[in-house]
Amino acid sequence: MSKHTELPFRLDSQLTEVMRLRVQSLQQRSQKRQDGERLLRPNEAVYRLDFSQQSLRFSHWTVRLAQPGRLTITATSQLWTPDLTNLMTRQLLEPAGVFWRGSADATVSCYEADAAEFGERIAELAKVRKVMYFLFAFADGCSPESVDGSITFTVDS
Questions:
Q1: Does residue 48 contact residue 131 with C-beta atoms inside 8 Å?
Q2: DSSP 21-44
């Protein structure tokens, strides 16, 4: 029998704040971002997944939106070390996970093929990482307070 593990996405408020301060600092000094640098937008926050095991196979996403809106989850590559370098556009992985809930919908929808490919990519990166960072972009009424998300993997023995 296969064992499953569900990993919740956790807001990294400290890293989100550091990235917001970077934007603020550039604005205050009337400076431009580095060539290729990806600045955090006002509707974005940094979340993280902590991997307790490395041999994982993607199973499924669980994303709950308490109200209508759209959530886009973009992963960062293993080359980004947030304590040492600024986030660069080339360090963002594709495809992104796009999840939404319309005003008449009770359930959350997504682009299933992209979400499955995204989940498989995360499982591959888990083999070489203990922590992975994600940009969550909130739109159309979605906010950090109205989102709850996790990703479930099958653990390879």
A1: yes
A2: HHHHHHHHTTPPPPTTB-PPPTTE
3-state secondary structure of 122: helix
Look over the chain and give the mean of its residue pLDDT values, rounded to a whole number: 92
Residue 25 CB partners (closer than 8 Å, separation 6+): 31
Whether residue 46 is predicted with pLDDT greater than 90 in this model: the reply is yes
| 115 token code pair | 């979400």
Pair of tokens at residue 50: 């902590």
> pTM for the complete prediction?
0.93
Give the tokens for residue 119: 């989940």
What spatial distance separates the first Cα and last Cα of the chain, rounded to whole Å? Answer: 10
Determine the Cα–Cα distance for residues 5 and 25; give it in Å rounded to an integer.
40
Alpha-carbon distance of 11 to 2, in angstroms, equals: 29
